[in-house]
């Protein structure tokens, strides 16, 4: 029984980080109906920037590196939306075009990371060491911290979207873009903001997981695929759905890895996705409609 609880807690702590990655992807889709295929590469970018500042020669503490990285990531998100996405919006087949453009951007970021940092993998030391003993269950203190940080980030985002004027503007744009524009909401500004916030969230996830997993220039596709499955399972555009789906799939992954093996984790996710979509084609919590 203790072993089962240990696996369960491991899945829950991992699910919190998956949630941060997925909520960023869901936020952009919910507001602008854009599926950003560069999302995973931006996750890798966050990890590499953290490594460069912490272990690549600057020897900064992680908290200071994060303070430097966050505005860089936000400006990156704004630049992507304004320079790459905005000119395509409104043109024929613009949704397909944005998928192709963001896919190309992912390859550009990957090759840029390889050019600057080399093809090898990197890692950084966790900001807290040791383990926590809880009723015979052993947990890494670092995973406990990233669980708490991830929950705080998602909770802050939900509060922002539901209880602030600008957050409600984001929801208004996601529900009726033309109506939001007619009542005076700057739709383009909302798009830029959601892209910036999405890149910041996925970058933070890359930073948090850098001490747990190796950072690789090509390592963003697995987080992107997982985020995509989470978003579809939860319901495209639903941050609440992404939150619930992230924990369901992370716990499933933990049990599958322990009892069957790591190579079966992603197939188990896809089977779960197919089963749920057969019953609820829009996912667990439906979709925001424009």
TrEMBL record:
Source organism, top-level taxon: Bacteria
Keyword terms, alphabetized: Amino-acid transport, Cell membrane, Membrane, Plasmid, Transmembrane, Transmembrane helix, Transport
Keyword match Transmembrane: yes
A Pfam family the protein falls into: BPD_transp_2
Protein location: Cell membrane
Membrane-topology annotation of the record: Multi-pass membrane protein
Keyword Transmembrane set for record: yes
CDD domains on file: TM_PBP1_LivH_like (cd06582)
TM ranges: 12-30, 37-54, 60-84, 96-117, 142-161, 190-214, 267-288
Family note: Belongs to the binding-protein-dependent transport system permease family. LivHM subfamily.
Protein name as it appears in the record: Branched-chain amino acid ABC transporter permease
Organism name: Aliisedimentitalea scapharcae
Organismal lineage: Bacteria, Pseudomonadati, Pseudomonadota, Alphaproteobacteria, Rhodobacterales
């Amino acid at each position: 029984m203790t072993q089962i609880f240990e696996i369960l807690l491991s899945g829950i702590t991992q699910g919190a980080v998956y949630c941060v990655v997925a909520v960023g992807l869901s936020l952009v889709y919910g507001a602008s109906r854009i599926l950003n295929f560069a999302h995973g590469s931006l996750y890798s970018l966050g990890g590499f920037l953290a490594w460069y500042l912490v272990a690549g020669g600057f020897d900064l503490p992680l908290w200071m590196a994060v303070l430097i990285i966050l505005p860089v990531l936000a400006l990156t998100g704004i630049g992507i939306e304004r320079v790459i996405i905005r000119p395509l919006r409104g043109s024929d087949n613009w949704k397909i075009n944005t998928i192709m453009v963001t896919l190309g951007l992912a390859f550009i970021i990957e090759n840029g990371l390889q050019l600057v940092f080399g093809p090898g993998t990197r890692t950084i030391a966790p900001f807290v060491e040791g383990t926590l003993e809880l009723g015979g269950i052993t947990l890494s203190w670092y995973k406990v911290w990233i669980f708490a940080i991830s929950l705080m980030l998602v909770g802050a985002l939900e509060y922002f979207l539901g209880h602030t004027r600008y957050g409600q503007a984001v929801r208004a744009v996601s529900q009726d873009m033309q109506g939001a524009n007619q009542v005076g909401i700057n739709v383009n500004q909302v798009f830029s903001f959601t892209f910036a916030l999405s890149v910041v969230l996925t970058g933070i996830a890359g930073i948090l997981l850098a001490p747990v997993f190796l950072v690789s220039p090509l390592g963003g596709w697995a987080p992107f695929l997982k985020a995509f499955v989470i978003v579809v399972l939860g319901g495209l555009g639903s941050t609440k759905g992404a939150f619930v789906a992230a924990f369901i799939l992370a716990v499933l992954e933990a049990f599958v890895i322990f009892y069957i093996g790591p190579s079966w984790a992603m197939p188990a996710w896809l089977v779960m996705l197919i089963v749920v979509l057969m019953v609820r084609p829009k996912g667990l919590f439906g979709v925001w409609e424009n």
